């Protein structure tokens, strides 16, 4: 069994060919960071146009690198949401075109299911397991019960941690993406110098909030600037260290609760923020304390890619999912309802 996967829901255009045994034959990712850099965020219209321009090439490249032809494949999986609808549509249209032209089955995949099922692509992981998805756009706990059954335990009620890292980097004049820049600064900082909040820790449950933390950093920066006319290198490092420690503490405590609730034998993490060494080490400790294993797939499979989409397509295909030409892109698509029939989906 082998599937072509297509991903275009945010600012990465990606295509991949994956086999049913988890072998990744190819995985091509074309980013758009430089296109959006001047605007301080992803511009949906620019993203959609760039996807349209790059998708064909990505798919050709992925096929070429895999050594397979379209005729050798068993299906086409495409991200059908959630995400920026222009980009999602571009991918869905291309996938439909390929399916119509070859007669291959078409499977519409939830982008979040792609992230959530990645541990099964990289390792022989059995259900159920607890997944913490922590990226620039998302932050949520999912108990993964089956390839089509996800239970959301909680998540951020405002910013995602990656977004907070990026905003704090901007506040402190550090380059984007902010995560790696803040982590590098934090290495020489004192995390205890600034008393930054640990939002929502006093409340039960697994929901999180990160926007107040970013505001606290802004206030601390402005207080320092007002008192001394600017920030020293050490001030900046201390702020970064304090901010990183606050995020790590919140994630660790909420993960502890989620694990206690689910009692799954494994904690898996995905998303760009899981690349952070301090956060990763804290989460690993939480898993160990809870008697659970810990798994963080390689970063290139934790951030947006099409191998995870091809794999999620294979899993859904094995459960019998087939989408027809009426497959619709969905800007919003909560993962709890991933198994619910898509609006307008035909057989
Ligand atoms: P999504 O995939 O949810 O739509 P995204 O594409 O922004 O969102 P990813 O590509 O998974 O998410 O991750 C990018 C985010 O991860 C950025 O916000 C970046 O700052 C953050 N990040 C990357 N490396 C680190 C790090 N070492 N520490 C903290 N954050 C990091
Ligand atoms: Fe993603």
UniProtKB/TrEMBL annotation:
Reaction(s) the record says it catalyses: L-threonylcarbamoyladenylate + adenosine(37) in tRNA = N(6)-L-threonylcarbamoyladenosine(37) in tRNA + AMP + H(+)
- Primary place of residence? cytoplasm
Xref: InterPro entries: ATPase_NBD, Gcp-like_dom, KAE1/TsaD, TsaD
Claim: Acyltransferase is one of the keywords in the record: yes
* GO molecular function annotation: iron ion binding; tRNA N(6)-L-threonylcarbamoyladenine synthase activity
Q: How is the cofactor bound?
A: Binds 1 Fe(2+) ion per subunit.
- Enumerate the cofactors the protein uses: Fe(2+)
Q: Which domain of life is it from?
A: Bacteria
List the Gene3D superfamilies hit by this protein, alphabetically: 3.30.420.40
Q: Which CDD domains match?
A: ASKHA_NBD_TsaD_bac (cd24133)
Q: Which Pfam families match?
A: TsaD
Q: Tell where it localizes.
A: Cytoplasm
* A GO biological-process term: tRNA threonylcarbamoyladenosine modification
Which parts of the sequence bind Fe cation?
111, 115, 304
Reported function: Required for the formation of a threonylcarbamoyl group on adenosine at position 37 (t(6)A37) in tRNAs that read codons beginning with adenine. Is involved in the transfer of the threonylcarbamoyl moiety of threonylcarbamoyl-AMP (TC-AMP) to the N6 group of A37, together with TsaE and TsaB. TsaD likely plays a direct catalytic role in this reaction.
Check the record and name the NCBIfam families matching this protein: gcp_kae1, T6A_TsaD_YgjD
PANTHER family assigned: TRNA N6-ADENOSINE THREONYLCARBAMOYLTRANSFERASE (PTHR11735), TRNA N6-ADENOSINE THREONYLCARBAMOYLTRANSFERASE, MITOCHONDRIAL (PTHR11735:SF6)
This chain's protein is named tRNA N6-adenosine threonylcarbamoyltransferase
Task: Tell me the organism.
Answer: Paracoccus isoporae
Name of the coding gene: tsaD
């Amino acid at each position: 069994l082998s599937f072509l996967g297509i991903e275009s829901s945010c600012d990465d255009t990606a295509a991949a060919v994956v086999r049913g045994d988890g072998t990744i034959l190819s995985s091509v990712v074309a980013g758009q960071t430089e296109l959006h850099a001047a605007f301080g965020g992803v511009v949906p219209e620019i993203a959609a146009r760039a996807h349209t321009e790059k998708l064909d090439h990505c798919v050709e490249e992925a096929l070429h690198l895999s050594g397979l032809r379209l005729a050798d494949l068993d299906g086409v999986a495409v991200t059908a949401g959630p995400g920026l609808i222009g980009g999602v549509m571009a991918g869905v249209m291309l996938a439909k075109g390929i399916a119509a032209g070859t007669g291959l089955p078409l499977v519409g995949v939830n982008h979040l299911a792609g992230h959530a099922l990645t541990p099964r692509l990289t390792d022989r992981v059995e259900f159920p397991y607890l997944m913490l998805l922590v990226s620039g756009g998302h932050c949520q706990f999912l108990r993964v019960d089956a390839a089509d059954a996800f239970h959301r335990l909680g998540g951020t009620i405002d910013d995602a941690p990656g977004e907070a890292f990026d905003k704090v980097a901007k506040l402190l004049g550090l380059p984007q993406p902010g995560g790696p820049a803040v982590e590098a600064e934090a290495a020489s900082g004192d995390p205890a110098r600034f008393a930054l909040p640990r939002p929502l820790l006093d409340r039960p449950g697994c929901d999180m909030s990160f926007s107040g933390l970013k505001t606290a950093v802004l206030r601390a920066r402005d207080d320092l600037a007002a008192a001394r006319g600017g920030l020293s290198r050490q001030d900046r490092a201390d702020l970064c260290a304090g901010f990183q420690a606050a995020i790590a503490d919140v994630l660790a405590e909420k993960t502890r609760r989620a694990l206690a609730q689910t009692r799954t034998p494994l904690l898996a993490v995905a998303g760009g923020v899981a690349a952070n060494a301090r956060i990763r080490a804290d989460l690993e400790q939480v898993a160990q304390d809870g008697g659970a294993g810990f798994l963080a797939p390689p970063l290139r499979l934790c951030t947006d890619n099409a191998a995870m989409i091809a794999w999620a397509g294979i899993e859904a295909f094995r459960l019998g999912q087939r989408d027809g030409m009426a497959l619709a892109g969905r800007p919003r698509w909560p993962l709890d309802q991933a198994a619910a029939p898509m609006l307008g989906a035909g057989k």
